[in-house]
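Read as amino acids, tokens; as here:

___
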Amino acid sequence: MKYDFTTKIDRSNTGAFKYDFMPESLRDSGIVPMTVADMEFSAPPEVNEAVAAAAHHGCYGYTGPDKAFMDAVKHWQKTRHGWDIEDDWYVVTNGIVQALGIAVRAFTAPEDSVLIMTPVYHPFYGAVLDNGRQLVTSALIENAGRYEIDFEDIEAKAALPSVKLMLLCSPHNPIGRVWTREELEKISEICLKNGVLVVSDEIHNDLIMPGNRHTVFASIPGAEDNCIVCTAISKTFNLAGLSCSNIFVPNEKLREKFSKQAHTDGCGCVPYIARFATIAAYNKGSEWLDELISVVDANFRLLYDFIGKRLPQFSVTRAEGTYLAWIDMRSLGMGHEKLNEFMVEKAMIADNDGEMFGSAGDGFRRWNLALPKAELENALERLEKAVKEL
């Protein structure tokens, strides 16, 4: 490969959530944590070079989405996703989680409800509940290890008079589904019919495993005027710490309302370093991303093979996108608190408790597979040893 996806990078003492905030008992265990959804790989060298040059300039002033920035953003969406965007659709926020909260405040009142599909990325719950809105959930249907949308339930929930907004995770975290165009068309049809605005979190839109294809929600006929599409450089290129998201609101009236709330919340600038990183990533990062996807796909196949042959009492959802694995460990018969203890104290693994994504995740674990193969092998061997000692 042209790029390095094998070197273990020491991230300790950098303030990294994964390392410097992991359980103390694991800090000296030699394990690479598989918790927070950032990567154990360096960002593309082309991005690192651009960031170094920007830092060398030495003047880190207020920065906006200028022509070079917007041209790079539009180029990426067109070449990677076949989606044409207009400059004036763009709204900057400093994270998609922030954008979710902005949308909830902008488009709902305290008596209104917001619809989500569970299990789902835990800040979805917070975006609703922390803003004093009502939460309406629709449980995904687990069918032989694959999750499907319960459209009958979605239709019933969207028809509730209080439901004004739907937060859609696409691709879906933590289960790794890449929703088909047909599935998204059904969601769009239901939401349009019931006057429910869709906020589509597409932060993992570039991390699609071979044989699958991501559909931008706004590219669906009729959906463009009833959605907000949230994207970022963060997951794709391991740049989450730069706090820059690219939010697209094609409908002018919706955009005015969203932008006003974003401005009220203090948004307005593209972080200086993020400007240079975005331009380099979107103009020069395609080859690096292709190699990354092949590495993550190989890690998924390693996980499937190991679990299937050596820990068959467990099962893994076949990921279509993201670099996040959803592992069913319910056969151990432990509640999530005991399972947490087992993973930390016996298996010596730092991962995510499935229950944090909703009650349907009890007994599951989420593993981040954006790490060198040798580190995944280490974790799997630790898990096997701990299970055998039960």
